[in-house]
Design a protein that fits this description.
By secondary structure, this protein is mainly α. Helix content is 67%, strand content 0%. Helix 2 runs parallel beside helix 4, helix 8 runs parallel beside helix 10 and helix 9 runs antiparallel to helix 10. The chain is globular and about 55 Å long.
């Protein structure tokens, strides 16, 4: 926001640092995924990156946006959620395209049937738990998130005055985000390797989550945000430990079974 000319003299160093910190919060969350994106593009291989990381972040940031309507927090945190959702959709589309390109045999198309059939048959979306979040088309991921967002928005509209509901939405948002590294941690355990996972991404996760947690505390953000930041740092450190433990086992991912 522009500062009136007559107020320039009232701008303090703390104000400048606050604006820088806010800007860092908005774009800092997506920075760790740039090296992972480049690695996937260069190697044309997605087996070291778990798409469930994208699922966790999409769910968490959708809930965080809904939480904003019930309990207004700082605008930079809201903008960060919007930017993160866009980033995760780009990551998913890239991974799906590369997986399809590398697949020798394609899975046959499946149509979701059941109580929501009238809606989903139009989009050929499969919500069978066996194939959940393993779809071979980008459209299915988008439709699922649109449905999730629409249901969440309807509930928030109806229950926005119910404080307990609003607080639960906020807690679910930050707990889901706090666990975003768990799918990557489990995939590394399954592969007995961290090959294909960007170490730079995890390092930036750790630095970013540390900065973010300090930002939450300094800005007196809702307590849910502080809980989220602390848990994320713990998970980040666990993944960094895996890099050390599996450093002599780079071939395991190529010779063994792997998680989807």
């Amino acid at each position: 926001m522009a500062i009136p000319y007559e107020n320039y003299d009232n701008v303090t160093l703390n104000d400048v640092l606050g604006w820088v910190a806010s800007g860092a919060m908005i774009i800092g969350g997506v920075v760790p995924y740039i090296p992972q994106y480049r690695e996937i593009q260069i190697k044309e291989d997605t087996k070291g990156f778990s798409l469930y990381v994208c699922l966790a972040l999409l769910i968490a940031n959708t809930l965080r946006i809904l939480f904003w309507f019930g309990k207004r927090y700082e605008t930079p945190l809201l903008l960060q959620s919007v930017l993160m959702i866009i980033t995760m959709l780009i990551m998913i589309r890239t991974c799906v395209n590369i997986k399809n390109k590398n697949q020798i045999t394609r899975s046959k198309e499946r149509v979701f049937t059941g109580i929501m059939n009238l809606f989903f048959i139009m989009f050929e979306v499969d919500l069978d738990t066996k194939y959940f979040w393993k779809w071979t088309d980008f459209q299915s991921y988008v439709i699922f998130m649109l449905l999730f967002g629409a249901v969440g928005a309807a509930l928030m509209y109806l229950l926005v005055d119910v404080l307990v509901f609003v607080e639960i939405v906020g807690l679910l948002a930050v707990l889901t985000e706090a666990m975003l590294g768990i799918p990557q941690f489990l995939k590394n355990c399954h592969n007995k390797s961290t090959e294909g996972m960007s170490i730079t991404m995890v390092t930036l996760w750790t630095l970013g989550d540390t900065f973010k947690t300090c930002y939450f505390i300094q800005r007196e953000a809702p307590v849910q945000f502080g809980i989220c930041g602390t848990l994320q740092i713990v998970v980040d450190l666990a993944i960094i430990t895996q890099v050390y433990l599996y450093r002599t086992n780079p071939a395991a991912l190529r010779t063994g079974t792997r998680a989807d």
